[in-house]
Amino acid sequence: MNNSIWTFANPHNFMRLSGVVAPWAAALAAITLAIGLGWSLFATPPDYQQKETIKIFFIHVPAAMMAVNIYAVMVIASLIGLIRSHPVSHLVAKAAAPIGAAFTLVAIITGALWGQPMWGAWWVWDARLTSVLILLFFYLGYLALWNAIEDPVKAADLASILCLVGSLFAFMSRYAVEFWNTLHQGASLSLDKESHVADVYYAPLLVMILGVYLLFIALLMVGVRTEIRARRLRALRIAQIGQADAALTRTAAAGNPASAQ
Amino acid sequence: MKAVFLRDLRLAFRLGGGAGQSLAFFLIAITLLALGVGPAPDLLSRLAPGALWVFALLACLLSLDRLFQADYEDGSLDHLLLAPTPLEGVALAKSAAHWLTTAAPLALFAPVLGAMLNLPDAAMGTLVTALLLGTPALSLIGAIGAALTVGVRRGGLLLSLLVLPLYLPTLIFGAMAVRAAAEGLPVLEPLALLGALTLGCAALGPFAAAAALRINLS
Questions:
Q1: In this complex, do B172 and A177 lie within 8 Å of one another by their Cβ atoms?
Q2: Partner-chain residue, chosen from B148, B151, B165, that has the shortest CB–CB distance to A169
Q3: What is the DSSP string of A141-180?
Q4: Distances (CA, A) of B72 to B34, B46, B153
Q5: Per the domain annotation, does A256 fall within a domain?
Q6: Residue A211 domain-assigned (yes or no)
Q7: More confident residue, A79 or A44
Q8: Is the alpha carbon torsion for A198, A202, A205, A209 positive or negative?
Q9: What is the pLDDT of residues A201-257, one digit of tens each?
């Protein structure tokens, strides 16, 4: 076995590696998130302006980061899957999508919960909020296409084309939305908090970010393993039906030689 | 390529579908809007740029599902795959025919509907220009969606879920151009962006659509 990344195109090799990585990533994610949540929720002082609501930030920011980064993972996985017909890569893209959609939803919901006390509105059509919402639509469309097509090989290739086309348009939409919003009104609500976060908040945020990355790796590995097993099950079932068919024709031929002719 | 284009045009006109139906849809949608929000002229004129673009988008979307499906079902798509014309050319010709039979008549008819919604006269020219510049992108993007879902039965809702997010930049720039014209602001920037979008889609869309068709036909 050579040490190239392409060895993991073989599902067997991938299963062996992920079987080791998944539990470690899950355990580390649990520890990191426990530390991060404990630190950020109980050991940081309330903000002088935002009071305790600042603590939503520790979930909101990592979730929003993952929403974008997981889509990037899907784009890379789709590209590799399409170019090299790399089955595990397609499955990585497929398994990443629901995780990404969930993080996007978490980012939107925590944003709404944060926005209500801060801005007095659950939702505003701010450029950044709108582009996260658009990203959610791209995730949903991608998942819907996978579900609609029965043949898994076709579904994989079609979904990766959609992912690549979608990434172009998601990128364009992001800038178009900024353009759209600035024509309407100046940025009355700036969400650019990351640039001026005090150190007290910065360190626990980094722990949380590390935690969600580990969580993503663990969930992704489990997701891909499930997909590979589902494929094997499907193949076994098809083989079984084939055998049953062959057996049936054999018995029919033995019982009634005239009709088998 | 020309033959495919002319064939699609003839089919659209002889089946009595295409232009007439999408115009009727456009008219009904405008009436529904006016009935829904009330007859206040200033409110309607503020809604008009966005509403006209959203309805043009929907009219385009509703006619997309038949773009490849009829040919897929009766097997002519397999013949087109074997024909010397590359599938990319077929996709481009079909998008062009789709545009000519649905969106182009809408664009020419749009000033009438704009007047019904009390859109300022100054914006009419920009409305037609923006629709003519932007709607080809809708047909080209729609061809990708139609090619992806050609094998899915009753894929109408799926198609809209796939295609509508891709229509967002076109909608934003199109409505922006019309709104800017209604407010007397310069319109060159959004119009140029619309044109760029259409050209970009014309360059890349047929390749994506043809790749999706090949996978579906394999």
A1: yes
A2: B165
A3: HHHHHHHH-SSHHHHHHHHHHHHHHHHHHHHHHHHHHHHH
A4: 39, 43, 11
A5: no
A6: yes
A7: A79
A8: positive
A9: 777 788 888 888 888 888 888 888 888 888 888 888 888 888 888 888 888 777 655
**In chain B, which residue's Cα lies nearest the Cα of A156?**
B215
Q: Any alpha helices (H) in chain B, and if so which ranges?
A: 2-14, 18-37, 41-62, 66-74, 76-82, 87-98, 104-116, 124-148, 156-166, 168-182, 188-217
pLDDT at A189 over 50: no
- Domain of A57, in residue numbers: 21-223
Beta carbons of B149 and A161 less than 8 Å apart: no
- When CB atoms are compared, the residue of B149, B173, B208 closest to A176 is B173
Total of domains in chain A: 1
Closest Cα of chain B to A225: distance in Å? 26
Quote the pTM value.
Answer: 0.82
Tokens 């600035």, residue? A182
Region B104-114: what's the mean pLDDT?
Answer: 84
DSSP code per residue over B35-94 = HHH-S-HHHHHHHHHHHHHHHHHHHHHHTTTHHHHHHHHHTHHHHHHHSSS-HHHHHHHH
Residues 128-147 of chain B with CB under 8 A from chain A are 141, 144
Q: What average pLDDT does range B157-182 have in this prediction?
A: 86
pLDDT digits (tens, 9 = 90+) for B23-53: 888 888 888 888 888 888 888 888 888 888 8
